[in-house]
Specification:
The structure is a homodimer of 404-residue chains. Helices cover 37% and strands 18% of the residues of chain A. With 404 residues, chain A is of the alpha/beta class. Chain A has two domains: 6-150 and 302-355, Rossmann fold (3-Layer(aba) Sandwich); 160-301 and 362-385, 3-Layer(aba) Sandwich (Rossmann fold), CATH 3.40.50. Chain A is elongated.
């Protein structure tokens, strides 16, 4: 089962992350360095670009350009949300053959792993020798098998710093503040808001994730309780929270070609939650909602160094696997070794079908009650995010009153 | 007109900024170092804290705590949105007398300058010798006289980095994206999105500020034109955009005690603009809206170094003025000296009535057409924001097609 000689093709798919180009550059570097790989091509807009034969030559890019691209958020190859049909997958194989592509790397989430899996089945059936690897990325952190997903740490850092600042804002001008965070099925990113809690009375005071059924009545009760305790309340809620029937609390009804409901890019959920609080707890209350939106996956300049390094490493490892003798296809994973302060992850691989269309949500051990996360989760997420600002606070030494 | 001996009192008011505590710490440091000043007090929640005699002793804080506080976003003394009545201002004076406060520093926007101005009139009428200074802060940058306001540079940096990332996002997954940015009367912060434009085809492709009347019809036409040119369109719009009649395009109808309409903390404007585009240009278009919200004024970890240093400097300068012999009251300003790469601002002072209730909007020279800003604005804002990420881009060397 020695590796073939031929060209490599790289594509990026799905929602961007801030380190998705680290994986791209890791792949390009390792392909250029490999004797088995000839030309290194990129497909513009993922599968859509392959179908249109819209390829670029990544091997001609300078090292300086590649480093600048690696540090730039979102898909430098441009992305796509497209689930190819069986027929389109066969057409993709035809393009691979035409360009003598023997190595195909698809950077994306579980939808991309599925696409790679289908392509692999067709290649085997057609007896075309091509090495197919899925390189994981997603801010949602919802892929199975891997300890965590490249892209998550940086998005988690953005969310944690945003909530940290908003907690100070909420303390400055007390009221009820609701922040809506990305995550349609899994609450990993919303849970990361927990990192903002430094002093005992810091927000987020309530954390709602899709892993727990959401009830507006309980929500109002939770907010009322926190408000009477702290004189304010900061809420972190996943965009995908839903009732016991599974229906999202708010959605626009729009669906993409993978069947995913559109939840981002609208302030509907935040406004609904804020209005509910005003209606039920009193119109005089200061209630505001923000929906963090695309900033979570694209903000330029806030990156977890660990995340960036791991994203680069999974790209390099995919090439090492593909050009090796042991594994002709698969999805790269991160395996956590050591624990606590001794955090380290090594790269490994799992079968494509283990990742395709699978979703990993928060475990019971990560949650605490109906509206918080546990110390287990905090230990899990802390090393992925890296250095965080450390807010200071005045001691509030009282001055004796003289007029009362 | 030699300065009195007595205690100092500091308050923070209005919406937070990321460097408002730099000004606080600048004031505390300089007060502690001054021989004229006895105790250094802080009022919790601004004027509201003074009325309740809710004061703390800032002179007892350690240098380490003060430095940590200086680097923390939002009002460490906690803030307030309150316009005191004449009667309440007289009560404030009574509290100042009771605590022998001879130096009062109010960090805030034009509403705070107005409060300081009224307090000064009462103090003069009552023949109570107190030095009253307004220390400017606002992310909106809408105070007159000063070249710019402490707090603006850091918020502008956040907006520019957000739009820079969102431009990459929009390039990855093309569509129409609308970002709503703070600024009810003045478009300074929205205009700062211009800093994200690096390559010729980068967004923001359209910039709408309250200084120009907004028309939904023209907006739809502008978007259509940009979309056919670039295959995508990124829009930066101020929350305060309004039609020729002055009515906001979207508002919740809520009004604060200064008479300001609530525009933030809701996704209404973004959703309205996105829905309009979908309705008028086709439901099949990918249209999304994000409202940046409170992150712009509170996000932990994104600060302009220039802004932080200037915010500290205006605090120190207020104490130097107050304890000097020349100016018994006023508002601290920044005066730009040199130009271009040689940017430097010195601190100076103007009369309280020059700042109270005044609003400075973008000049005609800062604008370009109905939906962009000029090079003059770009030169103005660049040094205030400091270092920015520099996105990289692939060269897109084409690969010859083989199947067509």
């Amino acid at each position: 089962m020695s590796s073939p000689r031929g060209n490599a093709l790289i594509g990026q798919s799905g929602g961007p992350t801030c380190v998705i180009n680290q994986s791209l550059v890791g792949l390009v570097e390792a392909c250029v360095a490999s004797e088995a790989v000839g030309q290194v091509y990129g497909a513009l807009h993922g599968i859509a670009g392959i179908l249109d034969e819209n390829l670029i030559d990544l091997g001609r890019e300078s090292a300086a350009t590649l480093e600048a691209v690696a540090a730039t958020p979102c898909a430098a190859l441009r992305s796509v949300r497209k689930k190819p049909t069986r027929e389109e997958c066969e057409q993709v194989l035809a393009v691979l053959r035409a360009h003598d592509v023997r190595y195909f790397f698809y950077i994306g989430g579980n939808d991309s792993a599925e696409t790679a899996h289908i392509l692999n089945e067709i290649a085997v059936a057609e007896n075309y020798d091509v090495r197919l690897f899925h390189v994981p990325k997603t801010i949602d952190n919802d892929l199975p098998v891997t300890d965590h997903c490249p892209g998550f740490g940086s998005a988690a850092k953005f969310v944690a710093q945003a909530i940290m600042g908003d907690n100070q804002d909420n303390r400055s001008l007390p009221g009820i503040k609701i922040d809506v965070i990305m995550g349609r099925h899994a609450g990993w990113l919303t849970a990361a808001s927990r990192l903002a809690r430094q002093f005992e009375d810091d927000g987020p005071h309530l954390i709602y994730v899709p892993e727990r059924d959401f009830s507006l009545d309980e929500f109002v009760g939770d907010v009322e309780r926190m408000f009477s305790r702290h004189g304010r309340c900061l809420v972190a809620a996943s965009e995908g929270i839903h009732g016991p029937d599974g229906a999202p609390v708010a959605s626009t009804g729009e669906v993409d070609s993978h069947g995913n409901v559109q939840l981002s890019g609208t302030g509907a959920l935040g406004d609904l939650l804020a209005t509910t609080i005003k209606d039920r707890l009193g119109a005089g209350l200061r209630v505001r909602a923000d929906t963090f939106g695309y900033l979570q996956r694209s903000f330029a300049g806030v990156v977890s160094e660990v995340d960036a390094a791991e994203a680069r490493a999974v790209g390099r490892h995919a090439v090492a696997l593909a050009t090796g003798d042991d594994v002709p296809h698969g999805s790269v994973i991160l395996v956590r070794e050591g624990d606590g302060a001794e955090y380290f992850c090594r790269t490994d691989v799992t079968a494509l079908e283990n990742v395709a269309q699978q979703t990993r949500v928060l475990d019971e051990a990560h949650l605490a009650g109906s509206n918080d996360v546990s110390e287990v989760f905090l230990e899990y997420v802390t090393p992925l995010v890296g250095n965080m600002p450390r807010p200071g606070r005045l001691s509030d030494f009282p001055v004796a009153k003289r007029l009362v």
